Amino acid sequence: MASPISARTSPRHTLSVSPLSSVRSPHTSQLAIRAANPLFPCAKLSQARAVVAAAMEVSKHLSSSCLANRQPSKEVLETWRSADAVCFDVDSTVCLDEGIDELADFCGAGQAVAEWTTKAMTGTVPFEEALAARISLIKPSLSQVQYCLEKRPPRISPGIADLIKTLIANNTEVFLVSGGFRQMIEPVAFELGIPTENIIANRLLFGTSGEYAGFDTTEPTSRSGGKAVAVQQIRQDRGYKTLVMIGDGATDLEARQPGGADLFICYAGVQMREAVAAKADWTVFEFQELISELPQLNT
Ligand SMILES: [Mg+2]
């Protein structure tokens, strides 16, 4: 078994690139935009350092089953072009980072929380258990969340702003569906022109002095299988005919089911998970691949 390869993209990011089931994509080396809104005035372009020739080397070894769906079928393209709603995962899809890991690191609980995040991603523990364990290790106050967003505004993935602009210009509704926290996603939605009512995510709760008071366990995204439920709910509430889910994780793939998403597109530009990519209808490494297949109206 080959050793994991570590690459540093910034003073606080060490990326572990494993040649096994999940690899950090080389495309994280592209320009990343830090989300900013008037509350978090830290707008800047951030040039992540060259990630890793090593990661590119690893990507060459991906199984042919993953690469078989790099070219979409005619039916997949027709569904993509006719979608009246598109739901995006946030962590490692719309954004380069895992929001809860960022918050944990900022609050000094990075290592312990990252271990739970890995368990949550691999499905070895129920999502709700991993979420509760992680947040109880952080117990962030409102001011800590705000300070974290100010000091470390979420990094928006390359090309996502143009994709969302193109979808909106084509009258396609855009949603963010995340197992992360709404308070950390709102600045991203603001930056991308997505209304807050189109965010389906977990909610941190605070006391009257801003102290941590738990999280809302009634949100479907706080439980295993929650994204699938949330996407079904969106479709039912809005009466969409054709709905597409885009993400990098197994919970995003689950959203493709009767009454939910018609199509699952795996975005492997940040994290490449072979098991997810292999079952996707279409796997892309750059959002430009999706933009190229849409009508180009005035955006
Ligand atoms: Mg994700």
Q: Outline of this structure?
A:
It contains 13 helices and 15 strands. It has 299 residues and is of the alpha/beta class.
What would you note in describing this structure?
With 299 residues, the chain is α/β, with parallel strands linked by helices. It has a single domain (5-291), classed as HAD superfamily/HAD-like (Rossmann fold, 3-Layer(aba) Sandwich). The chain has 13 helices and 15 strands. Helix 11 links the parallel strand 12 (243-247) and strand 13 (263-267). The longest helix has 13 residues, at 110-122. It is globular, with a radius of gyration of 18 Å. It starts with a strand and ends in an 8-residue tail after the last helix. The model is unreliable at 1-21, 26-31 and 36-58 (pLDDT under 50). It binds magnesium ion (MG). Magnesium ion binds next to loops.
List the helices and strands and how they pair.
Blueprint: E1 5-10, E2 13-17, E3 22-24, E4 31-34, E5 44-47, H1 53-59, H2 64-67, H3 74-82, E6 85-88, H4 99-106, H5 110-122, H6 127-138, H7 142-151, E7 155-156, H8 160-169, E8 173-181, H9 182-192, E9 199-202, E10 204-206, E11 212-215, H10 226-238, E12 243-247, H11 250-253, E13 263-267, E14 271-273, H12 274-279, E15 282-284, H13 288-291
Helix pairs in contact: 4-5, 5-6
Residues 89, 91-93, 247-249 line the site of magnesium ion.
Region (Disordered): 1-22
Catalytic activity: O-phospho-L-serine + H2O = L-serine + phosphate
Family: Belongs to the HAD-like hydrolase superfamily. SerB family.
